[in-house]
Amino acid sequence: MPRRKGQSRQNQGQRAARIPLPSCKGPKLYPFVDDKARLQFIRLLSDPTIDADSYVFEVFIGGNPYALKAFKYYDKEEDELALDEFEREFLSRSTDGYTPLDHLDEYFDPFYNECRAYGKLIEKNLNGQVAVRCHGYMVLPAEYEDTLELQFEIDGWNRLSEEYDEPPSKRQPLRAIIKDLVLEDTKWTPRRMLSHLKKMRMHGVHVMEIKPENLSRMSCFNSSQILKYRITRIGILGLSMK
Description:
Helix content is 26%, strand content 16%. The protein has helices spanning 10-13, 76-82, 85-91, 105-108, 110-123, 143-152, 190-202, 212-215; strands at residues 39-44, 54-61, 64-71, 134-140, 174-179, 205-206, 225-226.
């Protein structure tokens, strides 16, 4: 079980509360409504051998089928170390008591990227129209980590090594996004997919990782950016806190 060292994730640890995420300015995703219903994992849909930032499962929640995308933990320290002097100085500027550097995870964490993208699509009444329908996010007790590793032979959630010194009840919970279950490729043509991408861009949702497997179902937004709330690595372009 790979473990890593690093600083604590105070923003990731407070997510058991039923609040819209991310907490920074911009579009937000609300919790899955029926998150107390019985959750049953059926099978792993994603390839565990690929170095991705999430695992996708077929699940039943309250007897209904869904796709559950469980995210690995984000390494904020790694992104902070990658900042150059200009980027660090820019992000350290405080506006009305808000310092972007203190909230770096809410702009780079794949889980929050996807929450923000779907929040925007829902806000514009595009949920399920230009992408697979999203039903909200869910937090899972850390006990699920070992269960899923045993059931599906997956290894590694990028959790801080020191967390394993704590009992599971005190560890960071797993974070997931619930979507419609799509087991077969849709009949979207390249022209239709391009039209959907253009429509999302019109509303500020920029899909940064365009791959055939993403476009066939339009369901992966973990690297997407909302233009108004974007921080890029090239001169911090497009950053707006208003």
